[in-house]
Design a protein that fits this description.
Elements: H1 2-12, H2 19-33, H3 40-43, E1 52-56, E2 65-69, H4 83-98, E3 102-106, H5 116-124, E4 127-131, H6 137-148, E5 153-158, H7 165-168, E6 173-176, H8 182-201, H9 209-223
Helix pairs in contact: 4-8
Amino acid sequence: MKYLGNTLDREFGLSPKFHEEFSRVFRDNCKYLGISSGDSATLAGSNRTPSTILVGEPSKKSGIKAFVIMPFVEKTSERPKGFFAEVLQSLITPAAIGAGFNVETANRQGSDVIQSTIINELLEADLVIADLTDHNPNVLFELGLRMAMEKPVALIKAAGTGKVFDVDNMLRVHEYQPNLWRSTVESDLPELTKHIAVAWENRNKDQSYMKILRRSVSTGNGSN
């Protein structure tokens, strides 16, 4: 309904108060006409795997959402199978919950296809947490889109991950220990929670990636 509502509002100028009624009438008409494509499975996703999933939420509802972008498949022998799932479960999710966020991520199911619904979530989330470990192309692409919108991000990566020159030199990237022992997780969690909270607290400050670049260009031009 969120994706449908965005389309009805943006493309057809239909007031949100009519969106549910439109969906119901459309489904009823499809059923009456015997049309199987375009029915509730398409509109509301009742028979489809959701593109995003809620992986955690604080006990006290906050109304703010952190969307996590990270690798979903281990593509090098350096990472054991299930490494990123464990990072999401044991580190990112509890840290984001500790910072007061509902935590959502993409439900890729092993696919590298970037879906429009995921892009919408990426652009609309209050905060995006990006795990730059192993320099996954999808993550870097999605991060670029988010940065272009000048919306807040919290950047993290496993210790030992090489630098992304245009990112690490301008924005703080929190490193976590990749062995994921209980002791290292317990040590990393408070710092990661603080890192996420600070990224959110500084969201309105004049420190976005795009603003830093624009200031650099402006300063450079002024000196010539």
